[in-house]
Amino acid sequence: MDEPRSPGDFTTAALADLLDRHGSNPERWPEAQRAPALALVQTNADAERLLDEARALDAALDALPAPAMPSHLPGQVLDALPRDFAEIALDWLAANFWRPVGFALAPLLVGFALGNAQQDGTGDLEDAVTLLAFDEVQLFDLAENGNAE
Amino acid sequence: MTDEELMIRVQRKDTSAFSVLLGRHSAAIHAFVFRLTGNAADAEDFTQETFLRVWSRGDTWKPGRVKFTTWAYRIARNLCIDAWRTRRGSAADAEADVEELAGDVPSDDAGRTRRALEAALAALPERQRTALVLCHHQGWSNREAAEMLDVSVDALESLLSRARRSLRKTLAPYREA
Fold first, then answer.
1. Do A89 and A131 belong together in one domain?
2. Is residue A138 part of a domain?
3. Residue A70 lies in a domain
4. What is the band of B156 on the pLDDT scale with cuts at 50, 70, 90?
5. Residue A22 belongs to domain spanning
6. Domain check: are A100 and A139 in the same one?
7. Which domains does chain B have, with CATH numbers?
8. Cβ separation of B18 and A81 shorter than 8 Å?
9. SS3 labels along chain B
10. Which residue does chain A place closest to B156, by CA atoms?
11. Same structural domain, A121 and A89
């Protein structure tokens, strides 16, 4: 079949092929074919009809709805990431390790606290006695020295 | 930071890099999967699974060989194909998908056109539909879509041509009306 030819030697068959491959948006057409294709559309009724049909299809495709991605999805993906053994083990330890360690350390801590409290009391008493004794010695020395003078 | 730089970090299990990739591409992958499956639940599931595979199989992506997006879209598409294979023969599923695509379609001319177009899209062979979705809806160039489909640009354009001719034929009676 003979195709009507444009001045630039661009046929309606070539335009139909271009529209099939790239759609109706001239910005998506190969640069070398854009100007001759648009020139053909300006001068040829068949070419104009082809472009109209392609535009109608693209518009119908654009009108098809697609739901927006649910906003929770990225968070859901991050929560579902599989984690490595070390990470899982650390989490387990953080959540559970205090129990056995706590039970094991409890008597030790109680003993330490009691012992420390007792030792503090005794120390204070000993210090007081020592100071008192020192004071007595000082008083005694003072009295003796005073008498001597 | 480019997708490829982020992906190298993801290979080292960097969750913050993964989070950036997720934010950058999840909506587009979700739309892509929905356009292929026509099913909102599948779109959500397969988007999640795509990114979980990006994380767990990141070591199979080789920098410099394919772009991150090419690789991620291939994963998403393969998930859709696997689902179709699993459900093959289940006409009820296919019909349910078309019903879901249709949603609340008005019963006027525009509604009838839309319903016919959705049914024609769903009936296209998978590679034709994927080619059209990648180029028309997702805006990828023919060369990029060809890489995603792992075919030559000529083969991709042949798929696009057949898809568009088929859909135009479907729309013709509605245009004439």
1. yes
2. yes
3. no
4. very high
5. 12-63
6. yes
7. 1-103 (1.10.1740.10), 106-177 (1.10.10.10)
8. yes
9. CCHHHHHHHHHCCCHHHHHHHHHHHHHHHHHHHHHHHCCHHHHHHHHHHHHHHHHHCHHHCCCCCCCHHHHHHHHHHHHHHHHHHHHCCCHHHHHHHHHHHHCCCCCCHHHHHHHHHHHHHHHCCHHHHHHHHHHHHCCCCHHHHHHHHCCCHHHHHHHHHHHHHHHHHHHHHHHHC
10. A21
11. yes
| Residue B33 clears pLDDT 90, i.e. is over it | yes
Record: contact B175-A84, CB cut-off 8 A: no
For the beta carbon of residue B69, count every other beta carbon within 10 angstroms. Answer: 20
Report the residue from B56, B114, B164 with minimal CB separation from A20. Answer: B164
Are A51 and A91 within one domain? no
| Pick among A33, A61, A71, A79 to test the B interface (most B CBs inside 10 A) | A61
CB of B18 less than 8 A from some CB of A: yes
pLDDT per residue over A98-135, tens digit each? 666 666 777 777 777 777 766 655 556 666 556 566 56
| Same domain assignment for residues A90 and A124 | yes
| pLDDT, mean of residues B8-17 | 95
Mean pLDDT along residues A37-45: 95
Pick the residue from chain A with its C-alpha nearest to B131. Answer: A21
Quote the pLDDT of residue B113. 86
The answer to whether B22 contacts A19, with C-beta atoms less than 8 Å apart, is no
- The answer as to whether A69 is a domain residue is no
Q: How far is B130 from chain A (nearest CA, A)?
A: 14
> What is the number of structural domains in chain A?
2
ipTM of the complex: 0.85
The pLDDT-based confidence of A27 (bands split at 50, 70, 90) is very high
The answer to whether B152 faces chain A, any CB pair under 8 Å, is no
Q: Which residues of A touch B135 (CB under 8 A)?
A: 23, 28
Same domain, A57 and A101: no
Q: What is the pTM of this model?
A: 0.74
Q: Which residue of A has its CA nearest to B116?
A: A60
